[in-house]
Amino acid sequence: MALKKSYDLLENVDPWICIASKLSLSIRVVSAIYRKHLKAHNVTMSQLSLLMVIGKHKSLPQSEIGKILKLERSTVTRDLKRMIDQGYFVKKGDKTRQVIYITDKGASYVESIIPDWRAATQEAKTKLGEDGEQALDLVLHKLMG
Amino acid sequence: MALKKSYDLLENVDPWICIASKLSLSIRVVSAIYRKHLKAHNVTMSQLSLLMVIGKHKSLPQSEIGKILKLERSTVTRDLKRMIDQGYFVKKGDKTRQVIYITDKGASYVESIIPDWRAATQEAKTKLGEDGEQALDLVLHKLMG
DNA sequence: TTTATTTAGTTGCATATACAACAAAAGTTT
DNA sequence: AAACTTTTGTTGTATATGCAACTAAATAAA
What is the mean pLDDT of chain A? Predict the structure, then answer.
């Protein structure tokens, strides 16, 4: 089972200096908190983000959604499709300039979820603490800036 | 297209106070940096994490891997399977106590990737700045603690 | 020691995500 | 106006991920 050679780079590397790994780990911890609170609503954070972002504007061009959430076009197409099928959004417009509208069903749905979403956010904030929350804002600001 | 009612909670909510959304956005930005640098190696960050973590220990019980990377058991099973199929790891042991070993092929592979991984990490660090990097460490520390 | 419980791994199912290739529409150049 | 370029949306393909249900093995309780 032993390796035939020695691997210096590998032996001396520290996987935990990886920025992507740190963020991945962080999102897994936080996602679990949100999933727990949102479970009864049968909604994911990705879906809730769409509901809240589009809902707040009442409607958004599909092309804007990807820009706002930094999602690839095909991801937006398919994430929306599932929710259109469920009646939370409708799509209007021609082939290349689609506009997505939230429906009353979608708006009611997101309103029913918001209290639990707030609770999840509160739990996450408590875990982060005041300083942790500010730190996260700084990270985001640096990355988006 | 207009909504039939008004939705107070929805109109007044700020989607961007969401901790999960902030982290999701952050990871998308950082992932893109790593994908760009790792593209030529045809490897993802998830795979590279497995290679580095297991490789550094030479071997790890499968059950440990999920604990270290905070991944669900089934995710570990399948992420490993793809890489075992490619010959980067081997699996030894009985039905419920598996141990995963890195192979020479896997160790060579990860060593060939490390320089570009370092470059990606450097680019991400530059974007974050010294303060942003410390902020990320604080976030992770708070969430894991 | 037998029984009950916990731990470990797998498989079915569903969502989320990106890239490449394609088609169609919109915008720009000439 | 015609030709070229960019933007937008979709579909094929692949990886990543979690939950539920199941099996099997290990551990604890009786």
Answer: 97
